[in-house]
């Protein structure tokens, strides 16, 4: 069974600064996908970024980028130039051919003005 | 449609009543998932479908929970005899391989309150 661990329950960052959210996972699979989802107070789940495990290049989506370390089973999210609208819960998720999306426990991010 | 549609957005039930939630996956998506998110934000996997077939139901409390995905109908999650601890937001997600890239799309959730 896969497990996903987010070791930071809460984090805060000043507006315009950079913050990194940690995520580690455990799997015996070789082909899988990793995601970061954002959940604002509205509770909507918004896909922020995804990474295919077979790709060595780290995914980037505007101000969001990941540091994917396959051997270490680590998948951190870096948010650059943080904005007030980035305040939300962030969930790391793992998805494989078994078709079950496994979530970490979430990190609550507060962006301070 | 191009989004996962969940109805209703809010549902209030008295303890012991039945609750039924609906999810219309994105057209062309073969996989549907149901998750329960309780107040402490933890996501609990309930069940997944590949088309109309149950793929994985290891998370389902079988004595009161049931789910279906029938052709040409929204998928449904039904809770018989609701309990207070069933109060949560229930998310549905759908996915499909497309050009080798996999992405799970979530609906906006149904907030179930059992009183």
Quick summary of this structure?
Chain A has 113 residues and is mostly beta strands. Chain A has strands spanning 3-5, 10-14, 19-21, 24-26, 32-39, 46-52, 60-61, 64-69, 74-79, 88-96, 102-103, 107-112. The model of chain A has no long low-confidence stretch (mean pLDDT 91).
Number of strands of chain A: 12
SS field, number of helical segments of chain A:
0
Biggest sheet layout of chain A: 6 strands, mixed
Going by helix content, strand content and strand pairing, the class of chain B is mainly beta
Residue ranges of chain B: pLDDT <50 for 5 or more in a row? none
Radius of gyration of chain A: 13 Å
Strand content of chain A: over 45%
Number of helices of chain B: 0
Mean of all residue-level pLDDT scores of chain A: 91
Shape call of chain A: globular
Termini gap of chain A? 41 Å
Order of helices and strands of chain B: EEEEEEEEEEE
Q: Which chains make the largest contact?
A: A-B, 23 and 25 residues
Largest sheet of chain B: 7 strands, mixed
Helix/sheet category of chain A:
mainly beta
Order of helices and strands of chain A: EEEEEEEEEEEE
Give an account of the 3D structure.
- Chain A is mainly beta and 113 residues long.
- Chain A has strands at residues 3-5, 10-14, 19-21, 24-26, 32-39, 46-52, 60-61, 64-69, 74-79, 88-96, 102-103, 107-112.
- In chain A, strands 2, 5, 6, 10, 11 and 12 form a six-stranded mixed β-sheet that branches. A four-stranded antiparallel β-sheet of chain A has the order 3-9-8-7, with no helix packed on it. A two-stranded antiparallel sheet of chain A has the order 1-4.
- The model of chain A has no long low-confidence stretch (mean pLDDT 91).
- Chain B has 115 residues and is mainly beta.
- In chain B, the strands form two sheets. In chain B, strands 2, 4, 5, 6, 9, 10 and 11 form a seven-stranded mixed β-sheet that branches. In chain B, strands 1-3-8-7 form a four-stranded antiparallel β-sheet, with no helix packed on it.
- In chain B, a hairpin with an 8-residue loop joins strand 9 and strand 10.
- Chain A binds chain B through residues 33, 35, 37, 39, 42-45, 47, 50, 52, 89, 91, 93, 95, 98-103, 105-106, and chain B through 31, 33, 35, 37, 41-43, 45, 48, 50, 55-56, 89, 91, 93, 95, 101-106, 108-109, 111.
């Amino acid at each position: 069974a896969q497990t996903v661990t987010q070791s930071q329950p809460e984090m805060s960052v000043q507006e315009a600064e950079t913050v990194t959210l940690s995520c580690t996972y455990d799997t015996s699979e070789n082909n899988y996908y990793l995601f970061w989802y954002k959940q604002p107070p509205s509770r909507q789940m918004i896909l922020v970024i995804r990474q295919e495990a077979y790709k060595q290049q780290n995914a980037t989506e505007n101000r969001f980028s990941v540091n994917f370390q396959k051997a270490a089973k680590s998948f951190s999210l870096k948010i650059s130039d943080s904005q007030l609208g980035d305040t939300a819960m962030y969930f790391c998720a793992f998805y494989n051919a078994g078709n079950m999306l496994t979530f970490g426990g979430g990190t609550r991010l507060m962006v301070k003005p | 449609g191009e989004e996962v549609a969940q109805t209703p957005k809010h549902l209030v039930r008295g303890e012991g009543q039945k609750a039924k939630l609906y999810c219309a996956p994105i057209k062309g998506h073969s996989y549907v998932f149901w998750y329960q998110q309780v107040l402490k934000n933890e996501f609990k996997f309930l069940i997944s479908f590949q088309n109309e077939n149950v793929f994985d139901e290891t998370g389902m409390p079988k004595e009161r929970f049931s789910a279906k995905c029938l052709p040409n109908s929204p998928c449904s999650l039904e809770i018989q005899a609701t309990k207070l601890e069933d109060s949560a937001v229930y998310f549905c997600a759908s996915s499909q391989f497309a050009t080798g890239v996999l992405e799970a799309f979530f609906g906006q959730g149904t907030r179930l309150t059992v009183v």
